[in-house]
Design a protein that fits this description.
Length: about 190
DNA sequence: TATTGGATCGCC
DNA sequence: GCGATCCAATAG
C-alpha cells in the first residue's frame, strides 16, 4: 500500500524536529529487484557547522557540501570500507543539516531484504544503519537522490501514538552529550538500547 | 603524497 | 576483542 509521500518542504526545517517527526514514517526504496519498505524507529540529528560530530562541522568538503544543499535529498556515504550510511538533508538551502536513519522495522519486501542481507533472521534485517541500507539496496548511486521524485522516498506511516526517547548519539567521539538521538520507546527494532 | 581513523558489523 | 577494507580529510 502506497501512503502519501512526504513533500520536500517537510525536510526544510529544524533538523531536530525533522529527526523526531521522521519516527513512524515509512522509508521506501524501489530498484529493479523490487520494492522494500521499513518503518523508521530510530534517527539522529546532525546539526551542521555548530555540531562537532557532523560532517559539516569543518566547512564544505566534496563529500559534505550536500548538507548545505536543498532539503529532502539523500546524503549517502561509505565508511569502514564496506558500509553505506543514509541521511536526509534538512534545513533551508545554505544551512547545513541532516538526519541519520539508524533503524527500521521491516514492512514490505522482506523476502528481498533477507536475500540482500544473506540471512533468514527477520530481527536483524534493518536494526542498524549499515544493515538497513544493505536490506533496501541503498548505495552511493543514491547519493543526491530527491526523495520527492526519485526511486527512494518516505511515506506517511499509519497513525499510531508512541513516546519518543532521546539519548546521546551512537558511535561518535565529539558531541557525545548532545541528546540528538531519537527512537520510538519500547520498539524492538532498535540498533541498541 | 602519506597517514589516520571512521555516524559499523560479525565473528573470535 | 578485533579484523575487514576503502576513502575522506588533514597534515606535510
Amino acid at each position: 500500500m502506497m501512503l502519501r509521500k512526504i513533500p520536500g518542504s517537510f525536510y526544510a526545517r529544524d533538523t531536530r524536529k525533522v529527526a523526531r517527526n521522521l519516527l513512524g514514517k515509512i522509508l521506501s526504496c524501489k530498484t529493479s529487484e523490487g520494492i522494500a519498505k521499513g518503518r523508521i524507529v530510530e534517527t539522529e540529528a546532525y546539526c551542521g557547522d555548530k555540531d562537532p560530530a557532523a560532517h559539516a562541522y569543518r566547512g564544505k568538503t566534496p563529500r559534505s557540501k550536500i548538507m548545505w544543499g536543498r532539503a529532502g535529498v539523500a546524503y549517502v556515504y561509505f565508511v569502514y570500507g564496506m558500509h553505506h550510511m543514509l541521511n536526509v538533508v534538512t534545513e533551508r538551502e545554505g544551512t547545513p543539516g541532516s538526519v541519520f536513519i539508524r533503524a527500521l522495522k521491516p514492512i514490505e519486501g522482506i523476502r528481498l531484504m533477507k536475500q540482500r542481507r544473506k540471512t533468514q533472521d527477520a530481527k536483524t534485517l534493518t536494526n542498524s544503519p549499515a544493515k538497513l541500507t544493505q536490506a533496501l539496496g541503498i548505495t552511493m548511486q543514491d547519493n543526491g537522490v530527491d526523495l520527492e521524485s526519485g526511486h527512494l522516498w518516505i511515506e506517511e506511516g499509519r497513525k499510531e501514538k508512541f513516546d519518543i526517547v532521546s539519548t546521546g548519539r551512537v558511535g561518535i567521539k565529539a558531541g557525545k552529550k548532545l541528546q540528538l538521538r531519537f527512537y520510538i520507546k519500547g520498539d524492538e527494532h532498535m540498533s541498541r538500547i
